[in-house]
């Protein structure tokens, strides 16, 4: 198995690259999706969140009330740390289970971990290859305003709350420039796939 981390800031084009790699045959493990799964009703992490932050963060149907939890931790760095201390280990454990299952199903699998906050999570060394999808700040702001209906201020706030481009470049083995056309991004992604396939064949 080849384990690849795919990261990039909000509206960088990372999802486009992930979809293309999946079309080629990569197994995609989506960190955001895993993060949602580990706080579903019946999951230990959800019980611990309710214990830590009170029953008010649980909705009437037993699911996590994200708005209520968000209101508590939004301006409380200590609260956010407590939340991360519950959710991050759960996400890590579930992700590793999915990696292992993919490797068992196909020892030559190319597993791509789609993780927006790779730098922030400090999990850089776990992967055979780290791919960063990059687009200029103005490009990303334009996408968020146009496609997600955000104001310019909201878009900049979201960008500034994540790791810097410099931080991401520092851990990158491969950078995909998604600042141009969709075709240019897909061409680079196709070239990356060929590179990954060659690596798997080389280690076989």
Automatic annotation (TrEMBL):
Q: In which pathway does it act?
A: Cofactor biosynthesis; coenzyme A biosynthesis; CoA from (R)-pantothenate: step 5/5
Q: Where in the cell is it found?
A: Cytoplasm
**GO MF annotation: an example:** ATP binding
Q: Which reaction does it catalyse?
A: 3'-dephospho-CoA + ATP = ADP + CoA + H(+)
Query: EC number(s) of the enzyme?
Result: 2.7.1.24
Keyword flag ATP-binding: yes
Ordered alphabetically, the record's keywords are: ATP-binding, Coenzyme A biosynthesis, Cytoplasm, Kinase, Nucleotide-binding, Transferase
Per the record, the GO terms for biological process are:
coenzyme A biosynthetic process
Binding sites annotated in the UniProt record for ATP: 11-16
Q: Is this entry keyworded Electron transport?
A: no
Q: Which leading EC class covers this enzyme?
A: transferase
Cellular component, GO, one term: cytoplasm
| General function of this protein | Catalyzes the phosphorylation of the 3'-hydroxyl group of dephosphocoenzyme A to form coenzyme A.
The family note in this entry says:
Belongs to the CoaE family.
Supply the name of the protein.
Dephospho-CoA kinase
């Amino acid at each position: 198995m080849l384990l690849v981390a795919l990261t990039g800031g909000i509206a960088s084009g990372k999802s486009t690259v992930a979809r293309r790699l999946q079309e080629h045959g990569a197994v995609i493990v989506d960190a955001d999706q895993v993060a949602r799964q580990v706080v579903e009703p019946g999951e230990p992490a959800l019980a611990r969140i309710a214990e830590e932050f009170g029953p008010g963060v649980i909705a009437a149907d037993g699911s996590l009330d994200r708005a209520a939890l968000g209101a508590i931790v939004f301006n409380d760095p200590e609260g956010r740390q407590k939340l991360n201390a519950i959710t991050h280990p759960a996400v890590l454990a579930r992700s590793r289970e999915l990696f292992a299952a993919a490797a068992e199903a196909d020892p030559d699998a190319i597993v791509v971990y789609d993780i927006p906050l790779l730098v922030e999570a400090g999990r850089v060394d776990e992967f055979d290859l780290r791919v960063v999808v990059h687009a200029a700040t103005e490009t990303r702001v334009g996408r968020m305003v146009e496609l997600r209906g955000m104001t310019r201020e909201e878009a900049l706030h979201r960008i500034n709350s994540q790791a810097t481009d410099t931080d991401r470049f520092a851990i990158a083995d491969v950078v995909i420039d998604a600042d141009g056309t969709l075709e240019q991004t897909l061409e680079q992604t196709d070239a990356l796939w060929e590179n990954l396939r060659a690596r798997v064949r080389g280690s076989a």
